[in-house]
Amino acid sequence: MNGRDPVIEVHVVAGTPAASPGRVKESRRRPPWWLWAAALAVLVPVALPVLFLFGRAAGATDAAWATLFSFRTLRLAGRSFLLTGVVTFSAIVIGVGGAWVLARTDIAFKRIWGVAFALPLVIPSYVVALAFISGTGPRGVFADITGLEIPHLIGLPGAWLALTITTYPYVYLITAAAIRKVDPSLEEAARGLGASPGRVFWTVVLPQLRPAIGAGALLAALYTLSDFGAVSLMRFDAFTRVIYAQYSGRLDRTPAIVLSIVLIMIAGVFIWGEQRTRGKGTYFSRSTSRPPSIYRLTPPQRTTAILSLTTVTAIGIFVPVSVLSIWVVRGLAAGTNIAVSWRAVMGSLTAGTFAAGLAMAAAIPITVLTVRFASRSTHWLERVVFTIFSLPHITIAIAVVAFTIRYARPVYQSILVLALVYAAMFLAQATSSAKASLLQVNPALEDASRSLGHGPIMTYVKVTLPLISRGLLAGGALVFVTTIKELPATLLLSPPGFTTLAVRIWSAADELLYARAATSSLLLIAVSVVPVYYLSIRSKDVVEV
Fold it and tell me: CATH number for the domain including 171?
């Protein structure tokens, strides 16, 4: 997927006992050099090419800089900002509304609705776009089945709908977790002073949810900004589509590098905006862990809520899966060659497993450094991890290609480089879940191991690693699911002859071979079922508030 799955960190702001003297001593010790070496082993191969990309852009020709200041680039920036803005706004409305209904009302079948509402996160944006393109229009699936011609979804409306469906679960998941932690006594006090339910929501609840909503909105914005598959299939000229065309269709690739820098800067604007909106305030209370208040819906409200949930889940799950299945049946009936590409399946499984293993291995030293040896240096290390996660994937791929061609040609377009790039891009997912687990481990257990004669390495292997294994495996599963859906980096960095389900879907859809693309899409969804199920039962190891 060309996108990003939720990454939520734990920050304890109140109610935490003071650190013990042993813990203070632990945090002030100088970490061993091998922890730093292990932590940087995955980050450096990606961070250096990105810095190299800025150097290449600084030495660009006048023609390349003319591309930067051209009217077309300004138009591209406006279109990208427009698409990102409307998608993010829609994701906030749907995500916050769904989180409130499912967490704070008495609607029936909450568990089923909750799973269904989050399921679009599993489907890549380009698969949703493929379903909408092939299902609408005069020759679409809906016209053939119902006789009603639905306008062809393409351009800005199609890109907006496809990306909204695949990004609102970010806002929903993070906001739903935060809503469950809102102090009900504050709402009760506001209602006791005569405030209406609507006023209580806007003045008491919403300010407490602002950090969570901002985090989910940032993920939705970064996903939209870096999306390549959906905008390409919808024929919407955003930065990623033009950068890929510039890079793959010209001998002089400097203009593509300059546009990549612009895309990175735009992503930085969104990150800065989220931080400014969030501010430095914290939202907490010292109340007991009382369950939140549950609002009783009136019959009209209940009907509206059910219709809204049904519409969103139908568009996000039922429509894409149904359209893809119909295309497969049509292909079989017409004798179209839609045979399963087991080479693509193995490519996806290999790349995903390799990347997940590297990310989990790199997450261990990074987590230990940031939790047990907290300092300004480890804070910057963690910031680099999340900065790489926030960068558009196509710009990272271009940076790695340019760097390896010039300085590391023997590993150019190798499976090792591809897996390293995957692991570095999604390392934040593995470190967040591992950190959530390590923060719950008493450091006295590690002190006891060392007092019994075990060295640091054996202590981490025999004590720390088993205690954080569940969170680490959950993070690895998240990296695996994200990797097998990744598209732009795979297109630019894949070794010759190497293919994945994501590449096969994009290639078939670009050639209007919908039956073949639908087969690979359903396979990709099926491959994601097991790790997503594991994530659902281990969600407490991934999402903590």
Answer: 1.10.3720.10
